[in-house]
Each structure stands twice: as C-alpha cells, then as structure tokens.
Amino acid sequence: MRFGLFSLFRESPFPRLQEHAAKVQEGGKLFRSAIRCYLESDCEEFDELHLKVTALESEADKIKQNIRAHLPKGILLPVDKFQFLWYLREADRVMDAMQDALHWLSYRTTLVPEPLIDDLLLMVDKAVEVIDEFQPMVESAVQYFHTFSNKERDQVKDVIRDLRLKEFESDQIERKLKSDVFTLTVNDPAATFHLIRLIEYIGEVSNHAENAGDMMRAMVAK
Description:
single chain; mainly alpha; Methane Monooxygenase Hydroxylase, Chain G, domain 1; 8 helices; elongated; disordered N terminus
C-alpha cells in the first residue's frame, strides 16, 4: 500500500519547495529586466536590479538550507531522497546562474553590437520561460504525492516536457549567438570574452532548470 508523501513527513518539505520555486520565478523576472537595462545605454537601474536578484538568491538559499535541515531521518519516503536533494540543488543553481550572469555584467561595460541584441534578449526570454515552468511543475507534483493519481502524474510530465522543449530552443539560440559574437566582435577580444561568458551563464540558467525537471521526472516515475 502506498502512502501520501505528507503522511510520512513530520512536516512536509513541499510547501517550502513551492516557496523556493516562487523565489526563482520572481528572480527570473528581475533578471530579464536587469539584462534589458544593461543593453539600454540610458538605463540607470541595473545596479538596483542586480542587488534585488542577489537578495532573492540569498532568500532562496535560506529556503534550501531550511529544507535540508528539516528533512526527517529514518523515515521511509515514497521518493528517493537523493533525487529530492538533487532536484533542490539544481533548482537553487538556477538562481545562482542568474546572479553569476549579473555579477559578470557588472565587471565591464560592453557595447553590444546591434545585430546581437534581439537574439540575446530572445535567449533571456526563453530562459525565463523555462523558469516559469517551475511553479506549475512543483504544484502538480504536490498534488501527485497527495494522491498518486495518474492524472496528476501526467500533468507533472506535461510541464516537464514543455520545460525541456524550451531549454532545447534556448540551446539553439545560444549556438547561433556564440557564432555571431565571434564574427561581430573580432576587433575587440575583451568584448568577445565578456559576451561569450555572459551567453554561457544565461545558458546555465536553462540547463540547471532542465536538470531540476529531470530529477522531478525521476521522482514521479513509476
């Protein structure tokens, strides 16, 4: 006989997991605003947005630490504890990657060639779309672990499928951007390095989100 997740926890970690997902999603919106601001020559809010993302990263990290500290010991769980903690690790790294990208931008003012801007913003938008799948994914998982209903399980899988598709689209944009950067900044090696690393950080946002989705998929697998 299978028991719901919540009946086995002294205090379920999933409400806190939902809080963490909400912080990541909030961070995604600020991250997008900060990148847009950086690319606008007359925007003066980058530092403020950067600090807000850093503060959210700290809040998300505290939630992660709280979840880890309060996981019960010696209780049989209907999910693999390693997979649960790995999901949490990858979800938290999404926030880390956003913070790292903004830290990196703050080190240098780089004039981004006009032909790169649309694709760069598209890649950021795609990363935020991936992040936006977190809350519905966790909410569907909470319902599944209450009921172990095939319907709820399929909903989790559907969200993860959408997440993977958007991450794949982000990868396609990333490859094109890197090629274009080398072509358009050939006379400014410092700009080339700065932009290539920025693109990699943005890519890591989507990559860690996909990794978290893979772990959630493993947790709901039969």
